[in-house]
Write a structure and sequence with these properties.
Chain A: Pfam families: ABC_tran. The structure holds 2 protein chains of 2 kinds. Chain A is of the alpha/beta class. Chain A is built from 8 helices and 10 strands. In chain A, 35% of the residues lie in helices and 25% in strands. In chain B, strand 1, helix 3 and strand 2 form a beta-alpha-beta unit. The chains are: A alpha/beta, B alpha/beta.
C-alpha cells in the first residue's frame, strides 16, 4: 500500500490543564473517505486543527503527506471547510471564491475555470454574483464547501459539510465526494448524520479523546453486533 | 501577491460598507466644523459692559466696538445688581486715574472680549486725547507765531510777546503728558488675555487631525480583524498557505490607502473650509498622518486579539483612545506634574501632533522632524512584529 495521506500516531493534545485528546491513532489512505464521528466535545474539531497545523501536538505525531505538521506550504494541497461558514458577507460568491483561490495559490488562468466548476458542483452558478449577505443558510454552506473544493486539493478536510443542506443536494455532494475518492484523492470528514457515515470507507469513533473503534462501517456493525452505525454510536457511548 | 489580494479584498469590503465609510469621512469634517464654530466665537460674542464714573468719551469708544454695548450706572451697587441679574457681563469703574474691572466670568470668551474691548477703547481714547492736546498746542504755537509776527511788524512790546510764549509752552506740554501717564498702567493691566483665546482652535487643529485618523483607523481595523476572527474567516485564511505577515501587510496597505484619503480630505477641509493657514508642506502633513494611521492600525489589530466581541472592542475606547487626547498636547503638558508628563512619551499621537504642529504652524521641513517620525516608526515596527507573532495563536506556522 502506498504512503498514508494523514498519519496520526498516539496523538495527544491538551489546552492548559484540560486534556482534549489522549491517544489518537488515525490514518487516511489515498483514495479513501474517512468519517470521524463522536458526540459533541469528543475532540473532532481538535483532531482537524492539529491535522491542519493550527495547533501543535502535545504528544505523539501528526504527519500529512509524510511531513510533520505544522507546515505552511502543505496547506496549499489541503481543502478545508470549517463548521462555521466563514465567508465575507460584503463580497459576492464569486469574489469569495476568487479571494480564497488566490490565497491558496491557484494561478489566475486556472482560477476562473475552477470557480465555474466548483460552483456547478454545489449548484450555485446562478447566484454567484450576488452578495453573500443575501444568501440563505444552505447557500452559504454550499459556497463554503465550494471554497474547500477549489484547486483540486489532494486532501479534503470537511467539518460537518452537509449541515443545513437539503437531501437532494446532499446526494449530489456525496456523488462529487465519491468522484474525488475515485480520482485517488482523500477526504477526512466529520459528521453527525449516521447514514453519511455508512458512505465512508472507514469510520473512526471518537470518544473521550480516544479512538474507540476505527474500521469499515460493515466491520464496525459486526463488531458491535448491531444493524446500523447509529446503534454502534449509541452502544459505544453506553447509552443503550 | 497574496498581500495585494488581501488588500483588494479589505478595500472592497470597506467601500461597500457605506455607513462606516461615511463615519470615517463625514464625521471628522462635521466635528471639526462644529469645533471651529464653538472655539472661534470670540469675535461674535455679544457682551454688554456697565460703566460707573467713566468719561463720556471712553463710553462712546467702548460702545463703538462691534458686539459691545454700554450701559452707564450712577453707583457701583446699581451696576453690581445688574451684573448679578446677568444684564451686563462686566463693570468698568473709574477710581481717580485707575480703572477697576469686574467680570461676571461665567463665560471666559466674554471676559476676554470685554478685556480686549476695554483695552482698545482706552487706547483709542488716549490717542484722541493726545490728538486734541496736540492740536491745542499746535494752535497755541500758531497763535504764538501770529503774535510774534505781529510784534515784529509793530516792532513794539517784544518782551510781552515772549512772556506769552513761555506761558503757552508749559501748558501744552502738561496737556500732552497728562494722558500718557493715564494710559500706561491700564494697558499693562489688560494686555495678557486677548491673544490666548484667538489661537486656541488653530493650536488644536493639527492634533485633532491626527486624533481623527488614529481613532477611526484604530476602531475600524480592530473591528475588521475581530470580525475575521469571530466569523471564522481568519481560520479559513490561515488554512491556506498564506503567510501571517501577508495578512498583516495586506491590512496595512488597505488601511494606509484609506488613511491617505481621509487625511487629504481633512487637510482640504481645514484649509478651504475653515481657512486655517498651513505654513509648511501639505504632503508632509499627509505623510505623518499616514504613519500615525499605520500605528493606529497595528494597535487596533493587536488589541482586537484581546477582545471577544465588538462590544469588548468598544471598551478599549475609554481605556486607550481617551487618554490619547489628554496627552496629545491639546491640554498643555507644561502645567502637569512630571510623572504625568512622562506618560505622554508612550502616546503615539503626541509625536504625530508635535510633528504636524511644526509643519502647519512653523513650516518645519519633514526632514527636520526625524525624532518624531523615528519614534512613530519604532511604534509601528514593534506593533507590527507583535501582530505577526500574535497571529501564531491561530496557526502555529
Amino acid at each position: 500500500m502506498s504512503q498514508a495521506i494523514i498519519e496520526l500516531q498516539h496523538l495527544a493534545k491538551s489546552f492548559g490543564k484540560q486534556t482534549v485528546l489522549k491517544d489518537i491513532n488515525l490514518t487516511v489512505n489515498p483514495g479513501e473517505i474517512v468519517g470521524l464521528i463522536g458526540p459533541s466535545g469528543a475532540g473532532k474539531s481538535t483532531v482537524i486543527k492539529v491535522t491542519l497545523g493550527m495547533e501543535v501536538t502535545s504528544g505523539g505525531s501528526a504527519e500529512v503527506f509524510g511531513t510533520t505538521m505544522p507546515n505552511r506550504e502543505l496547506l496549499g494541497r489541503i481543502g478545508y471547510m470549517a463548521q462555521t461558514d466563514a465567508l465575507y458577507d460584503a463580497l459576492t460568491g464569486r469574489e469569495n471564491l476568487k479571494f480564497f483561490g488566490l490565497m491558496k495559490g491557484i494561478t489566475k488562468k486556472v482560477l476562473n475555470e475552477q470557480v465555474d466548476y466548483v460552483a456547478k458542483v454545489v449548484d450555485l452558478t446562478s447566484d454567484l454574483d450576488k452578495r453573500v449577505s443575501g444568501y440563505s443558510g444552505g447557500m452559504m454552506r454550499r459556497l463554503s464547501l465550494a471554497i474547500a473544493l477549489l484547486g483540486k486539493p489532494d486532501l479534503l478536510i470537511l467539518d460537518e459539510p452537509t449541515v443545513g443542506i437539503d437531501p437532494a443536494l446532499r446526494r449530489q455532494i456525496w456523488a462529487e465526494l465519491g468522484r474525488i475518492r475515485d480520482e485517488g484523492r482523500s477526504i477526512l470528514i466529520t459528521t453527525h448524520v449516521m447514514d453519511e457515515a455508512e458512505l465512508c470507507g472507514r469510520v473512526a469513533l471518537l470518544l473521550d479523546g480516544k479512538v474507540m473503534a476505527f474500521d469499515a462501517p460493515a466491520a464496525l456493525k459486526q463488531q458491535y453486533q448491531v444493524k446500523t452505525i447509529e446503534e454502534v454510536f449509541l452502544k459505544a457511548e453506553g447509552v443503550d | 501577491m497574496r498581500t495585494i489580494g488581501i488588500m483588494n479584498r479589505v478595500l472592497k469590503e470597506l467601500f461597500r460598507d457605506k455607513r462606516t465609510l461615511a463615519l470615517m469621512f463625514v464625521a471628522p469634517i462635521l466635528i471639526m466644523l462644529l469645533m471651529s464654530v464653538i472655539f472661534n466665537t470670540n469675535a461674535s460674542t455679544d457682551v454688554s459692559v456697565g460703566t460707573v464714573a467713566v468719561s463720556q468719551k471712553l463710553n462712546r469708544q467702548i460702545a463703538d466696538i462691534k458686539h459691545v454695548t454700554v450701559k452707564t450706572y450712577d453707583t457701583k451697587s446699581a451696576a453690581k445688581k445688574a451684573l448679578k441679574a446677568e444684564k451686563i457681563d462686566a463693570i468698568v469703574k473709574k477710581n481717580g486715574n485707575n480703572y477697576s474691572l469686574t467680570y461676571a466670568n461665567t463665560d471666559s470668551t466674554k471676559t476676554a472680549t470685554v478685556k480686549l474691548a476695554f483695552k482698545n477703547a482706552l487706547t483709542a481714547t488716549s490717542i484722541n486725547q493726545l490728538k486734541s492736546a496736540l492740536t491745542k498746542s499746535t494752535k497755541a504755537t500758531v497763535k504764538l507765531q501770529a503774535q510774534l509776527q505781529a510784534s515784529q511788524k509793530q516792532q513794539a512790546a517784544t518782551a510781552r510777546a515772549a512772556g506769552n510764549a513761555t506761558a503757552a509752552q508749559p501748558a501744552a506740554s502738561t496737556m500732552a503728558t497728562k494722558p500718557t501717564s493715564q494710559k500706561t498702567p491700564k494697558i499693562t493691566n489688560h494686555y495678557v488675555y486677548g491673544d490666548k483665546d484667538t489661537g486656541y482652535f488653530a493650536k488644536m487643529l493639527p492634533i485633532l487631525m491626527g486624533f481623527f485618523v488614529f481613532f477611526f483607523v484604530f476602531l475600524i481595523s480592530g473591528m475588521a480583524l475581530l470580525k475575521e476572527r469571530t466569523s471564522g474567516t481568519l481560520d479559513r485564511l490561515l488554512a491556506t498557505p498564506v503567510k501571517r505577515s501577508s495578512i498583516v501587510f495586506g491590512y496595512m496597505l488597505s488601511y494606509g490607502v484609506l488613511a491617505v484619503l481621509q487625511t487629504i480630505l481633512i487637510v482640504l477641509v481645514t484649509v478651504w473650509l475653515l481657512g486655517t493657514e498651513v505654513v509648511g508642506n501639505m504632503v508632509s502633513v499627509i505623510v505623518i498622518n499616514l504613519i500615525l494611521a499605520l500605528v493606529a492600525l497595528a494597535f487596533g489589530i493587536l488589541l482586537s486579539t484581546f477582545a471577544n466581541s465588538e462590544f469588548q472592542m468598544m471598551q478599549f475606547i475609554p481605556l486607550v483612545v481617551v487618554p490619547q487626547i489628554f496627552f496629545s498636547g491639546i491640554i498643555p503638558l507644561d502645567s502637569m506634574a512630571a510623572w504625568v508628563k512622562d506618560i505622554s512619551y508612550i502616546i503615539p499621537i503626541k509625536y504625530a501632533g508635535d510633528a504636524v504642529t511644526d509643519i502647519i504652524m512653523r513650516g518645519t521641513s519633514i526632514w527636520h522632524l526625524g525624532f518624531d517620525i523615528g519614534i512613530l516608526l519604532i511604534f509601528l515596527v514593534v506593533l507590527t512584529v507583535l501582530n505577526i507573532v500574535g497571529l501564531k495563536r491561530y496557526r502555529k506556522v
